[in-house]
Amino acid sequence: AQKITQTQPGMFVQEKEAVTLDCTYDTSDQSYGLFWYKQPSSGEMIFLIYQGSYDEQNATEGRYSLNFQKARKSANLVISASQLGDSAMYFCAMREVGGSEKLVFGKGTKLTVNP
Amino acid sequence: NAGVTQTPKFRILKIGQSMTLQCAQDMNHNYMYWYRQDPGMGLKLIYYSVGAGITDKGEVPNGYNVSRSTTEDFPLRLELAAPSQTSVYFCASFKGQGDTGELFFGEGSRLTVL
Fold first, then answer.
1. Which pLDDT tens digit goes with each residue over B80-100?
2. With a CB-CB cutoff of 8 Å, which residues 33-92 of chain B face chain A?
3. pLDDT single digits (tens) B58-75
4. Other C-beta atoms within 10 Å of A110: how many?
5. Bond from prior residue into B8 cis (ω within 30 degrees of 0)
6. How much is the mean pLDDT over chain B?
7. How far is the alpha carbon of B59 from chain A, nearest alpha carbon, in Å?
8. I need a labelling partner for A94 at 20 to 30 A (CA). Which of A75, A109, B28, B37 fits?
9. How much of chain A exceeds pLDDT 90, in percent?
10. Among candidates A8, A21, A17, which has minimal Cα distance to A76?
């Protein structure tokens, strides 16, 4: 069974600094996708970044990058130049490719950006 | 573009009442999902569908039912509501196998059972 582990319930960062949110995963599948979603206090789920298991390069989207270490089964999110608006819950998720394609979510990390 | 639309956004139910959460998507996506999110927790899969006429259970299906008569709609029915079903419910859709894109989420439906 697939499992996502986020070991940091809460993280604090100073505005304009970089922060890394940890995510490890467990799966026996060879083909899978890894996602990060942001959930602000308003509650909606905002897609940030995607990494395929066969992608050789780490995914980047603006200030977001995914540090993918396949052998360690980790998919950490790096946010550069943090902004106050980055304060939110962040969820790591994994999708099995083929079959149901369902997303399995971690419990999330609450990021607080301090001015 | 409407994307994934959920109704209602808020609802209060009494114990034992029933209701249906509506979900519609206009992206012609084959795959649709219902998740629930309890306070301070991640999302747990209730039911999913890989196409019209096909549904299957997720992690936490007890107390819920779904149907998928059309590609666009995927309603979630709560029978005999219980306080444990107090949660935020998210509907999501995905284009289908071979697509490496994201799941698209609705805005969520906050349900309180008293």
1. 999 999 999 999 998 876 656
2. 33, 35, 40-45, 48, 50, 56, 58, 88, 90, 92
3. 999 999 999 999 999 999
4. 16
5. yes
6. 92
7. 10
8. B28
9. 80
10. A21
d(CA A108, CA A8): 8
* pLDDT value for B98: 61
Residue type for B26, please?
D
Report yes or no: A57 at the B interface, CB cutoff 8 Å.
no
A105 touches chain B (CB under 8 A): yes
First-to-last alpha carbon distance for chain B, in angstroms, is 36
Cα–Cα distance, A88 to A24 (Å, whole number) = 20
Q: Which residue has the tokens 């289908």?
A: B96
The set of long-range contacts for A46-49, using a CB threshold of 8 Å and a minimum separation of 24, is A47/B102, A47/B103, A47/B104, A48/A77, A48/A90, A49/A77
Asked if the model's pLDDT at residue B1 lies above 90, the reply is no
Q: How far apart are the first and last CA of chain A?
A: 41
- Give strand ranges (E) for chain B: 4-7, 10-13, 19-25, 31-37, 43-51, 54-57, 64-66, 76-78, 87-94, 104-105, 109-113
- Give the pair of three-digit tokens for residue A15: 């505005």
Q: What is the mean pLDDT of chain A?
A: 93
CA dist A95 and B100 (Å) reads: 10
DSSP string of chain A, one letter each residue: --EEE---SEEEEETTS-EEE--EEE-S-SSEEEEEEEE-TT---EEEEEEETT--SPPEETTEEEEEETTTTEEEEEE-S--GGG-EEEEEEEEESSTT--EEE---EEEEEE-
Q: Chains A, B: CB contacts under 8 A, how many?
A: 58
